[in-house]
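User: Quick sanity check before I run a bigger batch. Here is a single chain. Can you write out its predicted 3D structure?
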Amino acid sequence: MLKFFISSHGHFASGIKSSVEILMGPNPRITVFDAYVTQESVQENLDRFYENVEPEDQVILLSDLYGGSVNQVMYTYLDRPNTRLIAGVNLALVLELAVKEEISDEELAELVEQSRMMLRVVELDKSEAKEEDEDFF
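Assistant: Done. Predicted structure follows.
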C-alpha cells in the first residue's frame, strides 16, 4: 500500500489534506503533521507514523521546503525501506498521488514534473478581455 506523510512549517500540511478531502473525500493513507504549532516534533510524529508501516508498504514523505528544517528531519528517514522524499509539495501532486495504490520511481518523477507545470504566472489574455468588453456593450 502507498502511504503518505506530509509535514510543513505551520498549517500548510493540514490545509493540503483538507483540500484533498474536499475534492476526493477522506483518504486514510495520508498522515499530516503541522510543525512548530505545538511542542511535538517532526521526528516524534514520523516515528509514530512508521509504527503503522508494513514492510511491503511504499512511503512517500512530502515536505514544504527543500533544505528546510522539516525536510532535514524527513531526510533522515530515507534509510527506511521503500521510502522516498519529495520537497516542495503542492496540491496538484498530492491529488495525483492520492489515487495511486503503488508507484514506480519513473512514475513518481513524471508526477513531480507534471506538478511543476501547475506552478505558473497567470496573466489576463488581453484579446479575450476585449471580446468580453465588446459583448457587454
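The radius of gyration is 18 Å.

User: Great, the batch can go ahead then.
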